[in-house]
Design goal:
Strand 1 and strand 2 form a beta hairpin. The chain is globular and about 50 Å long. The chain is mainly alpha-helical and 142 residues long. Helix 3 crosses helix 4 and helix 4 crosses helix 5. A two-stranded antiparallel sheet has the order 1-2.
């Protein structure tokens, strides 16, 4: 689905991705893209350290991103209470699950909502690449 070059291209077209999901930082998109690429290539989701190493996001930052992307809520409050200012609801784009062969390891995988979002991102990226490719071909013909 996504190559490492695609992950870098995602950062280059950040404004286009924000049009899809305004509150989604570019680092979140890079994490989602890497998870999708790993699932496709290896048939399983990566662990959090793998994502951190491949995206260059420090482990503490990666923990916050995974919490925001997963089904856990950040800034959880008792029932009926308002969230503290600045807390963010979960985006529910990623699930965490225990590795079947090593119960100490937690793997990440996209939820259906995460897959749908990346499908839209891929459409925009493909359109962007086609536009860039079309412009370079036009320049060659003149």
């Amino acid at each position: 689905m996504f190559t490492p070059q695609d992950v870098l291209a995602i950062a280059r077209v950040a404004n286009e991705f924000r049009a899809i999901e305004e509150a989604l930082p570019v680092s979140y998109v890079a994490v989602l893209a890497y998870i999708a690429r790993h699932e496709l290539a290896k048939g399983e989701g990566p662990n959090q350290s793998e994502v951190s190493n491949m995206t260059g996001i420090a482990k503490p930052g990666m923990s916050r991103i995974v919490k925001a992307l997963s089904s856990e809520r950040m800034g959880a409050t008792p029932a009926g209470e308002k969230r503290p200012p600045g807390s963010r609801p979960s985006l529910k784009l990623v699930d965490r699950h225990t590795d079947p062969t090593d119960s100490r390891m937690v793997r990440l995988r996209l939820t259906p909502k995460g897959r749908a979002l990346l499908g839209r991102v891929a459409d925009i990226l493909n359109t962007h690449m086609e536009t860039q490719h079309g412009n370079s071909q036009k320049g060659e013909r003149t």
